[in-house]
Write a structure and sequence with these properties.
The protein is α/β, with parallel strands linked by helices and 290 residues long. The protein has one domain: Vaccinia Virus protein VP39 (Rossmann fold). The protein contains eleven helices and eight strands. It has an eight-stranded mixed sheet, sandwiched between helices. α2 packs parallel to α3.
Length: 290
């Protein structure tokens, strides 16, 4: 596909539309590649005989590159940001297809003909899970797979090791400092609240394995598989991730540099990701909607 299909409301705020933000996002490729490699280890679409695959929230194409490396021939990248998809097309060229769309609207491009939908490192950005399920219903074959990963603070792991705990505390301090520097941003405030709840053991309203399985089962998506993998970074790598967040809220380079002079990062950052595979049962989903 030579041109990117578009169906995005341009009045909708998208911090990654800017060239600077998407460039900074690409600087974090070394971390996102770890997630992508884990995703392929978790479920290799080529080895499983899957033909048509979607990379939902594909960003700059890191995960897509890993999927294509398995031998996959029919891959479509979906992302709301034209700037992100431009980076992905520069990386992958004509080896994939590209659709500019939000996660809440991509399904109209397909007709129950997709084997797997991957949604890597973006589940926490899905504000309307019911809308996502509706799009999965339009795109996936019966018993087609929906595969995604989640991590803290939108997901709770009950048995944090020492390195994870140190990394959690460092993330909390970063977001608290960012909130103080930028003012009362709702997204940052919510992130601080989630980290605080995890540290306090108040996890009733935070996703864990059982809650996600139960929620998706209630809308006709059947649990298939689950594994956990670790992502590891050093201080410089973590600063790249944090700068990706900060550039969306502190546009001025000098002010952002001033902010980062106050930020402390551990020499090693470790966090865990939970990988889920679900199968979409159209009959069950249709019965539940009646």
């Amino acid at each position: 596909m030579s041109n990117t299909e578009k169906e995005v409301d341009k009045n909708q705020y998208n911090p990654f539309e800017s060239e600077e933000a998407s460039k900074n996002y690409a600087n974090a490729d070394f971390l996102y590649k770890q997630s992508a490699d884990h995703a392929v280890n978790f479920f290799n679409p080529f080895e499983q005989g899957c033909n048509k695959v979607l990379d939902l929230g594909a960003g700059t194409g890191v995960s897509s590159e890993a999927l294509l490396a398995t031998g996959l021939q029919d891959l479509t990248l979906i992302d709301p940001s034209a700037s992100m998809l431009d980076k992905a097309k520069a990386r992958l060229g004509e080896n994939a297809k590209y659709i500019q769309s939000s996660a809440e609207n991509f399904g109209d491009h397909f007709d129950h003909n997709v084997d797997v939908v991957y949604a890597l490192n973006c589940f926490h950005l899905f504000h309307n899970l019911e809308a996502i399920v509706n799009q999965l219903s339009k795109s996936l074959k019966t018993m087609g797979r929906f595969i995604f990963n989640v991590s803290m603070p939108s997901f709770y792991f009950p048995d944090l090791n020492t390195e994870e705990f140190i990394s959690l505390k460092a993330n909390l301090e970063f977001y608290k400092s960012l909130s103080e520097f930028t003012g009362d941003n709702p997204l940052v405030k919510n992130t601080v609240d989630l980290f605080n709840k995890i540290l306090a053991g108040d996890t009733e309203k935070i996703f864990d394995k059982k809650k996600l399985i139960d929620i998706l089962f209630s809308v006709g998506i059947l649990f298939d598989d689950y594994k956990e993998y670790y992502i590891v970074s050093n201080a410089d790598g973590q600063k790249v991730i944090w700068d990706l967040v900060a550039v969306c809220l502190i546009e001025n380079d000098l002010k952002r540099k001033e902010f980062f002079e106050t930020v402390k990062v551990p020499a090693k950052m470790v966090f865990r990701q939970a990988y889920f595979s679900f199968k979409f049962n159209h009959n069950l989903a249709n019965n539940d909607s009646n």
